[in-house]
Design goal:
The complex is a heterodimer of chains A (about 475) and B (about 425).
Chain A: H1 6-15, H2 21-27, H3 32-40, H4 73-86, H5 90-102, H6 107-114, H7 118-124, H8 137-143, H9 149-157, H10 160-165, H11 179-188, H12 197-206, E1 210-215, E2 224-229, E3 239-240, E4 252-253, H13 262-273, H14 276-291, H15 299-311, H16 316-325, H17 327-330, H18 342-353, H19 364-370, H20 392-408, H21 410-417, H22 424-434, H23 442-453, H24 462-478
Antiparallel strand pairs in A: 1-2, 3-4
Helix pairs in contact in A: 1-3, 3-16, 5-8, 6-7, 9-13, 11-12, 14-15, 15-16, 18-20, 19-20, 20-24, 21-24, 22-24
Chain B: E1 7-10, E2 13-16, H1 23-33, E3 39-45, H2 51-54, E4 55-56, H3 61-66, E5 78-82, E6 88-91, H4 96-103, E7 107-114, H5 122-131, H6 142-148, E8 159-161, H7 196-208, H8 217-237, H9 255-268, E9 275-280, H10 297-318, E10 325-330, E11 351-356, E12 363-365, E13 378-379, E14 384-385, E15 389-390, H11 391-402, H12 407-411
Helix pairs in contact in B: 4-10, 7-8, 9-10
Classes of the chains: A mainly alpha (about 475), B alpha/beta (about 425).
Chain lengths: ~475, ~425
């Protein structure tokens, strides 16, 4: 098996989802800086792996029904997991997941308003495969994975899923909807401590008329949902904020005609995207996502990353590169220290234990019990990262997913382990080497070796290999250390 | 048998780490600690409950003018009488079961509960209610701090969150509460069937997770979580086949009812759990609130709530557990008085708390707001209802008179209110 430097392994766990055998082979040729370049220099138009779905040798999707990822939520989830396992650009999928967490939008509320399959289309439709070229929100996030954050904010404000999720579709003068304006400031940009209640009311008025238009028949393949600025619904009065909106320091959006009123929202988004507190909050959030969710962000890191963000006109690629090259990120003391998200745990297990013949639909219920369903964040604040994942029920769900995967991969694991059947120790070394975890010693090592020997002296027979290799991968991927990335 | 415990707190999250203890030992522990038999069930209505639609001031003219489409007509409310200021009140029409509990003297309604400068943020607001600390809503929760006061070692099932993530309210400094949303899935599988190999695997996992290095608190936390799971599996499993009392149905399509069924099962089996956390969502009714609908929006929320509470209440009554149970209902804020153009209501301030149980002193506490703009019972330019009863005084009463602990130390201040007697 190809050797990876611990730094590149770390990079692939955090900026990707771990390393499959093929990725180990590919990345073993790269130094750390080249590996960062490979991960960050992808063309979103050239990372399609969807044509591999339903191909032998890849993770499987359910075979007993038609695969409809633009219409059926379970299939949308399966397609995304498939991409995470197989994409040549894992960072693209990682960033899409991060934006999904940052702009956390839940399918269930949209379905409650417009029903399925339309709600699934608004979340996940791939426009080139959709009957009306509807672009699902996740495709927006994949497109803007390392794109310009200011532009992404504008797109999000006009995204049909978001317009339903935070009720922007109903926002009109006279009785504005506060939901989007509030979360735009509190969660998407400057944060709760840097705006006032009256800013919320003003922001709600700014976005009056940012509505949408539905054409075709709801629930049918000719339905389409698109942003529309509705001048009749716009509040044309001035809006005052507690922070500067314009470069001259002015905090006031002057009255505009209804026809020109969409500019209010663009002005506010521009002010928020380039606000120094947005830059600092982005840096702190990147610290949480990439470096550590348990340590307070390092001041020098926040200063550096927020400067990169502002100096590069909110382009995320240089920002992410700066994060991945930063001292705190590359510090070996932080390897295996960040709590793995359920999605990370599942995809990494698939990559490192094996996936051939594994039906990815099997992961749906375990992920629900681990606390992370794709397209269904608990609320607009996203998931509660870190120790919050590790309730007893969530931990059992991980253990039992590890068991299900090892069960499915029994024969393949036996075959792979055959050359290492000499002693319990050689079998254990093989398993540890295949999973990107540090060496195991002391009581844990003894427990694992005793497990291999339990039930009869070790002979390395085919039946022992079949039983104990699967059992070992279950225990290792269910162990504490494997829950960290 | 080894029983060690280490404490750590980092970023407001704590772990209690038990060395492996045999389930039988923990059962004994639970029986001893649960001897008083009292349970607290905290029910969180997530999203900001519209108190004005739940407990309706149906003769307040401003209520009707400010809610042209989202007011419950006086003819439809379930009248429950007047508060001490003479405002007549009624339950939402779907709260038929709650009315029966109220008539039995088992419901106390605490009007306008909240706190000064109420947060309109779901997240800050929820953290404030969970920590009982408006000034600094981080770190441990009020229920976690209560559990921390129990004599150690504390049974891992002393608290039980019926949700997937333990809410901050139950985060303690030394006690770790399990999140058990589905007792049936609370089991340990093995890739080699259910025979001897499964036993070997469980034994190995127990040993692996007993590794609690002090220099790696987060690894210790995860390992301790695994241990707590393995040590409580069998007791939690005993709840799965709980048979509710005759005639009581917890509907399968009502997640709140299913959670309360597990709570009733845990109480019936005498697992020793002192604090249960239950929650139900959908209360963030910004649009299409549908207070008068047959089965949509807020009316549906009230129907779901009433069905679940009624099943639970009746079951506990039949099982002889009602006297020893107190349910506390809260939400992170009330909602804006005037409806918005989307037929919904935005984030507001003070809300409604309820305590329910066989030992609860029923009745209506406090005074309703006068919804006429400019009235001093309002804030935010007349937009929202302002608080009258500090929610921490309700917590204080629960801690002091129900849980038998010291509210001053747990809440970090004296919030006792002699005018508020809930038991």
């Amino acid at each position: 098996m190809a050797e990876l430097s611990p730094f590149v392994e770390h990079l692939l766990r955090r900026a990707g989802f771990g390393a499959s055998e093929a990725e180990r082979e590919r990345f073993s040729r790269y130094t750390y800086p080249i590996a960062v370049s490979v991960l960050t220099n992808f063309n979103p138009d050239e990372t399609n792996v969807d044509d591999k779905i339903n191909t032998p040798g890849y993770v499987q999707i359910p075979g007993n029904r038609q695969f409809l990822p633009n219409q059926v939520l379970a299939d949308a989830r399966n397609r995304w997991l498939f991409r995470m396992v197989h994409s040549p650009a894992p960072l693209q999928e990682k960033m899409a997941l991060i934006w999904h967490h940052h702009f956390a939008t839940a399918h269930s509320k949209i379905a409650g308003t417009i029903g399925n399959p339309d709600a699934v289309r608004l979340m996940a439709a791939k426009p080139s495969e959709d009957s009306t070229n509807q672009r699902g929100q996740i495709e927006l996030f994949r497109e803007y994975a390392l794109g310009n954050f200011h532009e992404l904010l504008v797109e999000v404000a006009k995204d049909p899923a978001m317009l339903y999720w935070l009720d922007g579709y109903l926002n009109r003068r006279g009785s504005p909807q506060e939901n989007f304006g509030r979360e735009l400031m509190e969660l998407f940009t400057i944060g709760v401590d840097h705006h006032t209640e009256s800013d919320v009311y003003a922001a709600a008025r700014v976005f009056t008329g940012w509505n949408l238009v539905q054409t075709g028949t709801r629930g049918t393949s000719n339905a389409n949902y698109a942003f529309r600025y509705n001048a009749n619904n716009h509040d044309t009065d001035a809006k005052e904020f507690s922070f500067p909106i314009y470069r001259d320091g002015s905090r006031r959006i002057q009255p505009r005609s209804a026809a020109a009123g969409m500019q209010d929202g663009l002005d506010l988004i521009s002010a928020l995207a380039t606000h120094p507190e947005t830059a600092r909050r982005m840096a702190r959030r990147l610290w949480t996502w990439f470096v550590s969710e348990t340590e307070t962000p390092d001041d020098a890191f926040v200063d550096q990353i927020s400067n990169v963000y502002l100096a590069n006109d909110t382009n995320m690629k240089p920002v992410i590169r700066a994060v991945l090259f930063s001292k705190p990120f590359t510090d070996p003391a932080r390897f295996h220290q960040r709590y793995g998200w359920p999605v990370e745990f599942v995809v990494r297990s698939l990559k490192e234990v094996g996936y051939s013949g594994f039906n990815v639909d099997t992961a749906a219920t375990p992920m629900l019990n681990m606390g992370q369903q794709l397209f269904e964040p608990p609320d607009v604040n996203g998931w509660d990262l870190g120790p919050g994942w590790f309730s007893t029920g969530g931990m059992l769900a991980r253990l039992n997913f590890a068991s299900a995967l090892a069960t499915n991969q029994r024969a393949a694991l036996r075959d792979a382990a055959r050359a290492h059947n000499q002693t319990p120790e050689t079998l254990l070394e093989f398993a540890i080497g295949r999973l990107s975890i540090p060496e195991i010693d002391g009581e844990e090592r003894n427990a694992l070796l005793d497990y291999i020997r339990a039930g009869g002296a070790w002979t390395g027979s085919e039946s022992q290999l079949l039983t104990k290799t699967a059992g070992l991968f279950h225990l290792l991927t269910g162990s504490g250390i494997y829950q960290f990335v | 048998m080894k029983f060690t415990r280490r404490e750590f707190i980092r970023d407001g999250v704590a772990a209690f780490t038990v060395g492996f203890a045999a389930p039988a030992f923990l059962s004994d522990l639970a029986r001893a600690q649960g001897a008083t038999g009292r349970s607290l069930v905290v029910l969180y209505l997530s999203g900001g409950n519209d108190a004005l639609s739940m407990l309706v001031p149906y003769q307040d003219a401003a209520y009707h003018t400010r809610r042209p489409t989202q007011a419950v007509p006086a003819i439809n409310v379930i009248q429950i009488g007047a508060d001490r200021s003479g405002v007549v009140l009624g339950f939402h029409p779907r709260l038929v079961g709650l009315k029966q509990m109220f008539d039995a003297g088992h419901v106390r309604l605490i009007q306008r509960s909240g706190y000064p400068q109420s947060s309109r943020s779901h997240f800050t607001g929820t953290d404030i209610w969970n920590t009982a600390s408006p000034a600094s809503p981080t770190g441990s929760g009020w229920l976690g701090r209560y559990l921390d006061t129990l004599p150690s070692p504390v049974d891992p099932l002393a608290g039980w969150a019926t949700v997937r993530e333990v809410p901050r309210a139950l985060i303690g400094r030394t006690v770790s509460v399990p999140a058990i949303n589905n007792p049936a899935a609370y089991q340990f599988n093995s890739p080699n069937g259910i025979g001897a190999e499964q036993g070997f695997a469980r034994e190995a996992m127990t040993r692996i997770s007993s590794h609690l290095p002090t220099e790696k608190p987060h690894l210790s936390f995860v390992n301790a979580t695994t241990q707590a799971a393995l040590a409580t599996l069998d007791r939690v499993g005993s709840v799965v086949n709980y048979q509710p009392s005759t005639g009581v149905v917890y509907p399968n399509n009502n997640a709140l009812a299913q959670a309360l069924r597990a709570v009733a099962g845990a109480m019936f089996r005498g697992l020793g759990t002192k604090v249960f956390w239950v929650q139900t969502g959908g209360y963030d009714t910004h649009a299409s609130q549908n207070v008068n609908s047959a089965n949509l929006g807020y009316a549906n929320l009230m129907g779901t709530l009433d069905t679940a509470l009624t099943a639970f209440y009746t079951d506990l009554k039949n099982q002889g557990l009602l006297q020893n149970t107190m349910i506390v209902v809260f939400s992170e804020f009330g909602r804006r008085i005037s409806e918005n153009v989307s037929g919904g209501t935005d984030h507001g301030a003070a809300g409604l708390m309820m305590t329910i149980g066989g030992s609860v002193q029923g009745g209506i506490h406090g005074t309703a707001a006068n919804l006429q703009p400019g009235n001093p019972t309002l804030e935010n330019n007349g937009g929202d209802v302002t608080w009258e009863t500090d929610f921490r005084s309700v917590y204080a009463s629960v801690i002091d008179s129900w849980l038998g602990a010291d509210s001053v130390s747990i809440l970090g201040g004296n919030f006792r209110n002699s005018g508020l007697t809930i038991v």
